[in-house]
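Suppose a colleague, Dr. K., hands you the sequence of a protein chain of 332 amino acids and asks what its three-dimensional shape might be. Before reaching for any lab equipment, you can write down a predicted structure in token form. Begin with the sequence itself:
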Amino acid sequence: MHPIKISYGLFFAVLILTACHNNEGLYRPSEQAKYSITIGIESEGQELEEALIDEAFQLLKSQLVNYGIIYQSVEVAPDKRQIAFNIIGRLTAEGEDDPGLDYYLNALAGRSQLEFWETFRNIDEPVKLLFGQLVKEYNIGDKLVFTHSPLYPESVYPSAVIAEVAPGDMSLLDSLFRQPEVAGRMPLNMVLAWSFYTGDRPEGGAFFELYALKKTSTRGPFLTGSDVLSIENSATEEPGMDPEFTIDVGFTPKASMILANKTRQLAQDSNREIAILIDGYVVTAPRVMSEISGGRCQISGNFELEQVIKITDRLKLGALPFELRVVEAVKL
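The predicted structure, expressed as tokens, is then:
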């Protein structure tokens, strides 16, 4: 297995050159802009190094490429901590409508958050007690396919996945879990979360996985994007197989120690799982077999190339030590 680093700069150049070759260049200074969006950088009164502002500028410009946005101009005002975008539209197929202002706001102001959580298992008593009560009192047994039945003591396989749920039943269960009388029954250190991807049952039918996360601090996760030093994407290839795209994360020295201590504890505690979340959804929940030292980890999640590039850039924005705020967004 040979790791192959994806060159972000090369991808940027190839996409720009390809678009220009097709007379669909993303930068079109002579055309009239349809939208004006100004993004402000806020750091709670702290001084911002010019290099950080430039990093935000480069990442936001990369979002134009990632989302196929055609622009007339991009202007930086470091003294105001603002970046202004004059947007023409999006590269679209013939007959496809303009996606509208919200699409461009999501592309430029959206930041993804990375979180690392401990998890409960399907065989843990708090999980069995909670879902046993919910199944009996709210008649939701047909909505949840449990990996371990909360109504019967026999164990199947210890797992961080509590249940599988059909996509059409998620909103109903979300509403139930938010009801005060149900939320009040949950342990104070438990948070429910859905999987990022769907799975497919052998007999047919898609499902999302339901996880029970365990709070280990006042903020919930034991590591977040603020603990990250570097985020890159990469790919591994094996002969005769499609490449697997991953996100490589490097942590600060302090976070590296937390990760090493936490994974050592979980490995010794029956190889428990860590749930890795992006924007509140579980991307992967691997079992911890040994201590993770060196301050680095790799996130895999059946990513497509375009998807992993978008997620990586949004995570980089989310890890920056300041907030991005929409100062102005208008249709011209």
